[in-house]
Amino acid sequence: MNLDDLRTEAERRLDPVHRDFFAGGAGDERTLRANETAFDAYRILPRVLRGGGARDLRITLFGDELALPVLASPTAFHRLAHPDGELACARAVAAAGTVMVVSMAATTPIEAVAAATDAERRRARLWFQLYPQPDLGFTESVIRRAEAAGCQALVVTGDSPVFGWRERDLRNGFLDLPSGLWCENMRDPQTGTVRNIVMDDRLDWARIDWLREITRLPVVLKGVLHPADARLAVEHGVDAVLVSNHGGRQLDGVPASIDALPAVVDAVEGRVPVLLDGGVRRGTDILTALAFGAVAVGVGRPVVWGLAARGEAGVRQVFDWLRADLARAMTLAGAVRPADLTPDLILPGAAG
Fold first, then answer.
1. Of residues 18, 78, 82, 246, which has the active-site annotation?
2. What is the pLDDT of residue 288?
3. At what angle do helices 257-268 and 283-291 cross, to 10 degrees?
4. Distance of CA 256 to CAs 32, 259, 262, Å?
5. Contact at 8 Å (CB) between 310 and 88?
6. Burial class (CB in 10 A: 0-12, 13-18, 19+), 180
7. What is the C-alpha separation between 195 and 185, in angstroms, rounded?
8. Is 11 in contact with 306 (CB distance < 8 Å)?
């Protein structure tokens, strides 16, 4: 019936420690909860008698046409959810006709993820999520692997100079992957050993400038909430900004992504695309984000729930359901295509 049903099924199947890793947030998890509940504070003001027939959900990002304005956000450790892990996700996302953002903390190497759909002659559209490492040489080697695998953009996470305080994981003693699982994109090209991901508390705008010099891939800056940072991102040559609070897993108490979105859209003044992730669970959530100016949204935890519940078929169900629910919401709101969704369709209202 909805994505919560898949979550319920997934939670029955997952090891409780791994379930808490995927579900949990930082601190008291206020931001984690707010990401979903914040959508309740907005009301859709529909237009009527707009006609138009079937909805056209296609969008274009970086010159690539996507079948719908929903991406698979980067999420770590897919093989904790299902043995096929990132491979199953890549096949499902390719079938949906959209983008999978592959996590730097994937449990399958980027080369294998890229090859996952070759047998169908339909490669997944892949972007690569990057935590810039203090070792610039190693960071560049990871980028070269992503480029060689055919990734079409880099999604640079800017909101993680240190790890967030995640009490569920601490209570459960979840400090490392089980035996046999590794962050495969962290293998040293010289030694073959797997490095730990290092959060760099010296990360600054100079690192974005360096990335712009060493790669021709579009750079998406993920973790933008403040409009001043959105303006700086444009000044430093970023190709898109992703409004995100890391799924509530970094600094607890920051705004829900949807609440931060309008000011960021205003700040970039149409110079680069704005994306959003955090709390998107229904077609009406997608509609609200697009009406506020997002070009597309990302979903993270729902992909993991689908994967844990039913493998590749479950991830396909996530995107099929969101596609149908968005098309229904757009029809009822009087919009034929995403470009028809404008701020005047959204009203603030009492939550609940």
1. 246
2. 98
3. 30
4. 8, 5, 12
5. no
6. exposed
7. 9
8. no
- Indicate the pLDDT class of residue 350, thresholds 50, 70 and 90: low
Q: Give the integer Cα–Cα distance in Å for 278 and 33.
A: 10
C-alpha dist (Å) from residue 45 to 35, 138, 335, 337, 343 = 22, 50, 12, 16, 10
Residue 246 is among the residues annotated as catalytic for this protein? yes
258, amino acid identity:
I
Q: Which amino acid type is present at position 247?
A: G
| Closest to 28 measured CA to CA, from 279, 257, 252 | 252
| 97-142 pLDDT tens trace | 999 999 999 999 999 999 987 655 566 799 999 999 999 999 999 9
Q: Which two tokens stand for residue 262?
A: 């309008």
**Alpha carbon of residue 118 to chain centroid:** 23
Domains with residue ranges and CATH for the chain: 3-39+59-327 (3.20.20.70)
**Which pLDDT band, with edges at 50, 70 and 90, does 74 fall under?**
very high
Is residue 244 pLDDT above 70, yes or no?
yes
**CA-CA distance, 340 to 72, in Å (whole number)?**
23
Q: Cα separations (Å) of 67 from 37, 99, 107, 323? A: 28, 10, 27, 9
Amino acid identity for residue 205 in this structure: W
312: Cα separation from own chain's centroid: 18
The token duo for 7 is 């979550």
Task: Label residues 21-37 b or e (16+ Cβ within 10 Å = b).
Answer: bbbbbbbebebbebbbe
d(CA 317, CA 330): 20
